[in-house]
Amino acid sequence: MTAPVPDRPHLYREGAPDSPVLLMLHGTGGNEHDFAAFAESLDPSAAVLAPRGQVQENGMLRWFRRFAEGQFDVDDVVRRSGELAGFIAEARAAYGLGDRRLIAVGFSNGANIALATTLLHPGSLDRTIAFSGMNPLPDRELDTDLSGSRVLVLNGDSDPFAPLASAQRVVASLAEHGAEVDHVVRAGGHGIDESDLRAALSWLAAG
Predict the structure, then answer these.
(1) How many CB atoms lie within 10 A of CB 20?
(2) Is 117 part of a structural domain of the chain?
(3) Has residue 3 been placed in a domain?
(4) Which one of 34, 75, 80, 114 is most buried, by most CB atoms within 10 A?
(5) How many independent structural domains does the chain possess?
(6) Is 178 within the bounds of a domain?
(7) pLDDT, tens digit, for every residue of 139-160?
């Protein structure tokens, strides 16, 4: 019997059967449709799984609550990352994804939930690409083993929304817990520019 499709709003595109699955995680104010289009730039043959963030802030979709800019509700980060891990498991069963490689690709708030899920539920994700993300779990003790996890973190050196110092802290945390992590820092601020895309393509090509 086929497993039921997850009831969280999401977009799914099957892609080539031997291709990876790109889990596309939008930023604040985005949705599952607009960021899913970016998957074409990374791997046009890949399957695309793009869920919708379940938190609203002034009418904008997000992945978890925050108290102010850069001040996260860490308990909610933990809860929502668990929900995302559950969604991934349901989607694997519903769409028959089996052991296909699943790569989280997140931007901004989407990068933060991708990093949190990597740190807390490493078995849910095979690879993670975080564009303009920062440390989603400040001052939270972790006991997960990230051996086998590969993570690419990309930041601008003058990003007011994802300060470089915070990004460096999450990179250090990932490495301390056993992940293979690459950190690419470019000149500029928040966003995804051509150099970020080139770095992501090169990282994906390396396996």
Answers:
(1) 20
(2) yes
(3) no
(4) 114
(5) 1
(6) yes
(7) 888 999 999 999 999 999 999 9
* The dihedral sign for the CA sequence 147, 136, 140, 85: negative
Q: Which amino acid is at 201?
A: L
Amino acid of residue 73? D
Residue whose C-alpha is closest to residue 176's, from 144, 135, 202, 132: 144
* pLDDT, average across residues 5-25: 95
Q: Which amino acid is at 192?
A: I
Domain that holds residue 124: 10-205
Instruction: Look at residue 180 and tell me if it is in a domain.
Output: yes
Q: How many CB atoms are closer than 10 A to CB 174?
A: 26
H-helix or E-strand spanning residue 78: helix 74-94
Instruction: Please give the positions annotated as active site.
Output: 108, 159, 190
CATH assignment of the domain containing 71? 3.40.50.1820
Structure tokens belonging to residue 27:
């930023």
For residues 34 and 18, what is the distance between their CA atoms, to the nearest angstrom? 25
N-to-C CA span, the chain: 34
Measured CA to CA in angstroms, residue 109 lies from 14, 19, 61, 156, 172 at distances of 25, 26, 10, 15, 19
Question: Contact 35/49 with Cβ under 8 angstroms?
Answer: no
pLDDT tens per residue, range 97-122: 998 999 999 999 999 999 999 999 99
Around Cβ 176, how many Cβ atoms within 10 Å? 11
Q: Which residues contact 172 (CB under 8 A, 6 or more apart)?
A: none
Distance separating alpha carbons of residues 188 and 8, to the nearest angstrom = 35
User: What's 96's DSSP letter?
Assistant: T
